[in-house]
Amino acid sequence: MTAGFIDEFSNTDKDPGFYAITNFGAGAIALDSIPLKLLLVGLKASTGGTLTVDTAPVQIFSDTDALTLAAAHSELYRMARAALRVPGLEIWIAACAAPTGGGAAAATATITIAGTWSTAGTFRYYICGDEISGTVGSTNTVTEVAAAIVAEVMARSYIACKAANVAGVVTLTFGSIGTRGNDGILFQDISEMPTGLTSALAGGAAVTGDGTTGDGVRFSGGVGTDSITNLVTALNA
Questions:
Q1: For the whole model, what pTM was predicted?
Q2: Rg value, the chain, Cα
Q3: Of 31, 46, 66, 175, which residue is the least packed, with the fewest Cβ within 10 Å?
Q4: How many Å apart are CA 211 and CA 200, to the nearest integer?
Q5: Nearest to 77 by CA among 163, 5, 174
Q6: pLDDT score, position 1
Q7: Residue 137 gets which letter from DSSP?
Q8: What span, in angstroms and rounded, lies between the C-alpha atoms of 153 and 56?
Q9: pLDDT digit string (tens) for 158-213?
Q10: Beta carbons of 222 and 43 less than 8 angstroms apart
Q11: Who contacts 183 (Cβ-Cβ below 8 Å, separation ≥6)?
Q12: Rounded to whole angstroms, how far apart are CA atoms 180 and 123?
């Protein structure tokens, strides 16, 4: 691998491992002073992100860098965000081209808010492990509750999906196209919701938490498998 990533590697060196260079006459060096380089490869968001796909990796130094290059709600941004929490890593990111043709699409799931209620409460959902929550007013309509859910999702760039509301039905759409989105899980906690409010999840296979029917569902409808062939060629250039 060249292009400033690890210049000493040849194009046939592809095994993960720990690497160091011996410099004779340079004196002792502490292992913790040797940079640990991490290459992250994934999909940008379906829209946005300045990183050019299938090209040499770009080093990032901050959450802002990752967000600008990969865009909010993308799998690559979420990967970078997690890696940035690990001290001592030199992080590089590269994007492969998103699946195209053949009905390629992002996975989705829905939350349908219905019912009537006269007391306040709290909605709480977990999207791929990330929590969102908010207040349900005693006089809110189903559309207003759904809009509040959408606002909580869209306020968090690290959530795996985007959200939209139509008449009380929240549609969650994965930020990156492809089948990997079908592994995402939408989970709900209805314990603090007002009596009379109902929240129905729909998507793929049901997921059970504490044994209550309707606890969670997998996302579904993600179509398309990305290829890293062109990216590998670019990395080896």
A1: 0.82
A2: 22
A3: 31
A4: 16
A5: 174
A6: 41
A7: -
A8: 32
A9: 999 999 999 999 999 999 999 999 999 999 999 999 999 999 999 999 987 655 54
A10: no
A11: 218, 219
A12: 27
